[in-house]
């Protein structure tokens, strides 16, 4: 044993005697906040000159190729009135036009939660963590992979609500495929309201479902309040490349019309729905998102909107999409710079993996993509917890690992505080060379808030870890989600509101025939 | 299924038909380089004002508390002649004095490898990946954890040499505890030379062992060449807080005297060997490293030296050290900024974990710490591959995963190239809305170098993954290291040099009685 390991061994033996009293439980409660105000800068990787080249390419795409807006005449009318060139469903835009239209969108807005202590500010240097969204499957170590149900949906809401490290309840946390596709949004929105007191998202899969989601928010918050404040988000996808389909633009407009925030997200798998080179995919993503953001302003000037992106790569051996790889991580940083030049709130990346298990691959890919979201300055990080299986499955264990990692990111984004206390000159004068800091006044004063303390990592020496059962992280996470669900208690909800919501849900469930696809 | 997952599913089905021919094998060979020239900026998180406050605190520590230099009168003589204040073994320094002394060290230097194609440039925007160093234990999935042997040592050298994603053979890749402690350096240095043709490190655990390591380099490169060029590194640890012991300063001076590079590394576990707050621990680390770097210049002006650091945190519940946590990751960024203000090559962080298995925790912690090393601008990243168990074990499987991740970082550090080809305007004009890019001329021209392709991640759909045995990443890595060792071929070594080295090793093995501690 030499070098660092020798030092470690020597010091560890020496320091295990005199140390401050143990802190109970993991998770560093002092870091808990309703959302993060980042104390570290964004990581700006591209020069002004190169950012301008990307914007100019996006302008050329918008002017020379254009975007198709299918199955939504109202949207075409909007564009016509705004001065775009309409050719069938193809719309072309003069350079700079969309940046002008989008300038009425707010740089920052508050999304209200039914518990006002959980309101989130989206934009600026704020960061909001929201769980993963949209997987048809769920998995856990006991039962493997299967289609999600409304029971899984509720379980995952409860796990999210129980974590101090998420800030938002999310939306389609998994697909409850045991409910008809045309009705499940009712139970999903109800479950968010019932089992969480955080902000949430509604449906976008049909205009009617978007409107019913918003209507349920009106029952909860009051119609006047909803007209003046953001209380629900809708995540709309571009049908890349360069197509907005009517389902999405109608949902987008439903949210904007109600003064609620659409999250505009192209899904670009480089080489398939966009160019195989990052710069071109970024230019396309910028163009597609910009058009969606601008459309919200034509529907209702001043409506909140979030500039999103979803770049991914593909395995050129198998043709499969890949996630948590370096190229989209770097791409997010550029998208972040571009969004800041538009002065819009940003959604980027999230915690993605293509692993089919909550294993080393899952966290390698997850951490790389999640850190890129943090570094690029994303304000709303959808998919912060749970995804495996290339977006197709929500893993109960990975959900627990990821929310724990979100906790670590609270500490990471607190950065380095430099003041007389943290510089610790008094400690150096007290301790001096060759002694240790464990019992020093400075340590006693600061140790309780000093370091992030994971609830699912094992930091014991090898022998103690072996005695405790030689568990891996997934096994510990399995134990933890069961404990959390067993101990879960729903936040109180006004009885009259609960009844009104149940009445709305059941009335609408009865009013339509079931549709299953 | 809604939103992103729906998009994915829809596109994946659509795109699996017409695509470019499969690329054989993983790993993206086009990225292979002898070392990385970073094309992304450093991530500078602290303001000039706060950096100056940290430097001023370091100056106060050096002037008011001082550093003890034990059991090495020559070092005390150096300091006396340089104008420091000597009080027994305690040495105090006027503010600014050490920065003046260290200014003769080179900002960048070349470390020569026996294969000149593998020479590495250390400093500037260059990045060199070197495997982990110093663990007494090794582990693999078949045989669990046990003490390392010279056979393990050779196996790990071979695995390193076989990976295109490391640039350096490292040093004590594991401790060969089956050899006497006073002789094992001879077989270690010989193994690096024999089984790798990359640059390597020598012993530091005694002055004699450092000198014998350098002597073997002279046999390989010629004494005159070694006197004028760096061919071997020595990693020396500060006995934090604020103590340099004689073993380390004598080894440091042996390397500097021979014009070889010492890597100067305080090992600070916040709350034990340094303050529990990051800013103070950084100031201490800066002071300790600066003193070591300056000492190399007093031994031989102009000798190369690397400014290192090793900050870690502790679990305040158990008192155990923690690795790959957010605080040291953030701390590295600040150390990087400080080292650049000194114009010295930098070593920071590496791939650390406290997990006892190559599991999700191992990669979560490893990726966080490794990305901090990349972002902070580290030039020489020791511990790039293999560590688990809080520095105490080298894992064969994690070694494979980490070298694969080093490959991903080649792509990450290539950043975003912005030019007419990557902006892909021709592809947008060719493909247009609603079609796909798989068969486009732009894709055909670029797909072979487009994306990082991992050799141990699984990117297949769930069903294909299940059919192939439902493996986790550790299982795939286990298979891979066995295959790599089976296929390993030693790089050719001049027979006369090999014989001279064997003769030197065996002569010195016989000349001394065995010592086992």
From TrEMBL, chains A, B:
The protein's UniProt keywords, in alphabetical order, are: Methyltransferase, Transferase
* EC numbers on record: 2.1.1.-
Q: What top-level branch of life does the organism fall under? A: Bacteria
Region of interest (Disordered), residue spans: 1-30
Gene3D superfamilies, alphabetically?
Trimethylamine methyltransferase-like
Tell me a Gene Ontology molecular-function term this record carries: methyltransferase activity
Top EC class of this enzyme: transferase
Gene Ontology biological-process annotations: methanogenesis; methylation
Q: Which family does it belong to?
A: Belongs to the trimethylamine methyltransferase family.
Q: What is the name of the protein in this document?
A: Methyltransferase
The species is: Rhizobium daejeonense
Give the classification, highest ranks: Bacteria, Pseudomonadati, Pseudomonadota, Alphaproteobacteria, Hyphomicrobiales
């Amino acid at each position: 044993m030499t070098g660092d390991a020798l030092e470690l061994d020597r010091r560890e033996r020496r320091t295990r005697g005199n140390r401050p009293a143990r802190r109970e439980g993991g998770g560093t409660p002092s870091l808990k906040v309703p959302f993060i105000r980042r104390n570290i800068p964004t990581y700006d990787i591209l020069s002004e000159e190169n950012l301008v080249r990307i914007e100019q390419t996006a302008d050329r795409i918008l002017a020379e190729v254009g975007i198709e807006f299918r199955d939504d005449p109202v949207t075409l009318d909007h564009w016509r009135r705004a001065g775009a060139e309409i050719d069938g469903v193809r719309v072309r835009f003069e350079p700079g036009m969309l940046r002008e239209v989008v300038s009425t969108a707010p740089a920052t807005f508050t999304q209200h939660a039914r518990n006002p202590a959980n309101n989130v500010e989206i934009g600026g240097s704020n960061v909001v963590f929201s769980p993963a969204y949209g997987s048809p499957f769920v998995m856990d170590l006991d039962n493997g992979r299967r289609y999600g149900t409304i029971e899984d949906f509720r379980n995952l809401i409860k796990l999210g609500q129980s974590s101090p490290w998420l800030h938002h309840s999310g939306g389609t946390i998994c697909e409850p495929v045991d409910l008809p596709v045309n009705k499940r949004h009712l139970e999903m929105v109800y479950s968010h309201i019932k089992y969480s007191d955080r902000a949430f998202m509604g449906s976008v899969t049909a205009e009617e479902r978007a409107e019913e989601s918003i209507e349920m928010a009106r029952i909860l918050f009051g119609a006047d309040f909803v007209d003046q404040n953001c209380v629900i988000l809708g995540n709309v996808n571009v049908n890349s490349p360069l197509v907005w389909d009517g389902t999405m633009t109608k949902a987008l407009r439903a949210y904007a019309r109600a003064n609620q925030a659409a999250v505009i997200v192209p899904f670009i798998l480089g080489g398939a729905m966009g160019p195989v080179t990052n710069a071109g995919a970024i230019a396309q993503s910028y163009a597609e998102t910009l058009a969606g953001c601008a459309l919200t302003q034509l529907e209702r000037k001043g409506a909140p909107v979030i500039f999103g992106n979803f770049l991914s790569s593909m395995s050129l051996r198998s043709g499969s999409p890949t996630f948590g790889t370096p190229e989209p991580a770097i791409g997010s940083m550029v998208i972040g710079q571009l969004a800041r030049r538009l002065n819009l709130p940003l959604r980027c990346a999230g915690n993605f993996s293509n692993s089919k298990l909550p294993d080393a691959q899952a966290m390698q890919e997850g951490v790389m993509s999640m850190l890129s979201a943090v570094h690029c300055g994303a304000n709303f990080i959808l998919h912060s917890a749970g995804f495996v299986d290339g977006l197709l499955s929500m893993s109960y264990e990975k959900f627990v690992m990821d929310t724990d990692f979100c906790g670590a990111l609270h500490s990471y984004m607190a950065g380095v505080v430099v003041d007389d206390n943290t510089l610790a000159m008094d400690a150096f004068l007290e301790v001096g060379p060759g002694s240790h800091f464990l019992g020093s006044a400075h340590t006693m004063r600061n140790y309780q808030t000093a370091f992030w303390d994971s609830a699912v990592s094992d930091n014991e020496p090898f022998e103690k870890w072996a005695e405790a059962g030689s568990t891996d992280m997934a096994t510990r996470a399995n134990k933890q989600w069961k404990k959390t669900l067993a101990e879960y208690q729903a936040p109180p909800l006004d009885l009259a509101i609960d009844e009104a919501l149940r009445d709305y849900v059941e009335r609408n469930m009865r009013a339509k025939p079931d549709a299953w696809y």
